[in-house]
Amino acid sequence: MKRIDHVNIVVDDLSRMTAFYRDAIGLKVTREVTIQGDWIEAITGMPGVVADVVYLEPAAGPPLELIAYRCPEGSRPADLEKANTKGLRHLAFQVDDFNRVLKSVRAAGGELLAPVQKVPGGQVDYGARQKWIVYCRDPEGNLLEFCDYR
């Protein structure tokens, strides 16, 4: 394996979620497309797929792909907002200014779940650095982690 190519989030409101990840998180929109046709039907196993996609890139690391299916419409699994629900559960961003990021997240419709926490060094070792972490939800309830190493 070379690297993680991208992270995908299926969304209901593409405009709102694009604004959140662009404005509150600081990712840069690099491409907007509509996908359809035999190739995406084969990949997804769903006939008649039509979806709008926005690609957003951080300063470093894999891009984020937001996708809103026009058809067929998808469903939202139960308990998706809970940290212990099985499956892919959160997307983590390393930040350098918790106050600025969390203020932007709240202003853009995100939800802070608890105050920033210090990860105990005895449980998870990061060498000479200390990890600080906080969980949030984006406007559609997806879990996000923001962390900093000091």
Biggest sheet features: 5 strands, mixed
Total count of helical runs of at least 4 residues? 3
The poorly predicted ranges are none
Rg of Cα set? 17 Å
Structure summary, number of beta strands: 9
Terminal-residue CA separation: 30 Å
- Average of the residue pLDDT scores: 92
Percent of residues in helices: 10-25%
Which percent range describes the beta-strand content? 25-35%
Overall geometric form: elongated
Question: What structural class do you assign from the helix and strand content?
Answer: alpha+beta
Order of helices and strands: EHEHEEEHEEEE
Explained architecture:
There is one protein chain. This protein is of the alpha+beta class and 150 residues long. It has three helices and nine strands; from the N terminus they run βαβαβββαββββ. The chain has helices at residues 14-24, 38-44, 98-107, and strands at residues 7-10, 28-36, 50-57, 64-71, 90-94, 111-112, 117-118, 131-137, 143-149. The strands form two sheets. Strands 5, 6, 7, 8 and 9 form a five-stranded mixed β-sheet that branches. The chain has a four-stranded mixed β-sheet with strand order 1-4-3-2, sandwiched between helices.
